[in-house]
Structures are given as structure tokens and as C-alpha cells.
Amino acid sequence: MDTTGIVVWILCVGGTAALFTGIGIYAMHRKEPMWFWAGSTVQPESITDIPAYNRENGWMWIIYSIPFWLDVILGWRWPKFGGVMIALACTVGIAWLIWRYHRILKKYQRY
Questions:
Q1: Dihedral of the alpha carbons of 15, 17, 21, 24, in degrees to the nearest 10
Q2: CA 16, 19, 22 angle in degrees (round to 5)?
Q3: 28 near 55, Cβ under 8 Å?
Q4: Whole-angstrom Cα distance, residue 98 to residue 101?
Q5: pTM, whole model, 2 decimals?
Q6: Per residue in 75-89, pLDDT tens?
Q7: What are residue 109's DSSP bridge partners?
């Protein structure tokens, strides 16, 4: 891969990794419950332990960012590996995010 391609790769994938890590850190420091779906909210009275809920939500996003960080480090050197890693993160990873969020919500949601 040429230098321009490496720079573009690092900026795009690294920016995505930083975004997901940032969401995780943001979630951990929120006072109100963190939401998952765009445009949705989680009512504070519906969560039993908001700090623990937000902490788990934050770790979920940080864990999700790991394949993107690995891709920044390894993908530019081995583009096929990078393509597979991104494809898995964007398919299996998103399915994992949804599954994990529902588990967190179920754990902390009042009935």
C-alpha cells in the first residue's frame, strides 16, 4: 500500500476506533443512563444502578473498538487481514453489540 493509502487507512479506521472508544469513555462518565439506539433515551427511573449500567455500557463500546484498533496497527501492512477484520467488526461485531446491550439492559432494568 502506498503512503497515501496508509494515511487514509489510518485516518478512517483510526477515527472509527477513536469514536467507539470515545463513546465508551463518555458512557462511563455520564450521570444519566447511556442510550444505545440513535434517537432513543433510557429513563433514569427504569435503571436500578445507573453507574454500573453506564460502566458496563462503556466497556461494551471499548471492547467493540478493539478490532478497529488492531486493524489500524495491522491492516495497513496486511490489507487482506484489514478487510476481513473490518468486515467481521461490521457484521459479527454489530450483532455482538446488540446482544450485549440487551444483556446489560436486562441486568439493570427495573420491571
A1: 110
A2: 150
A3: yes
A4: 5
A5: 0.90
A6: 778 888 888 999 999
A7: 47
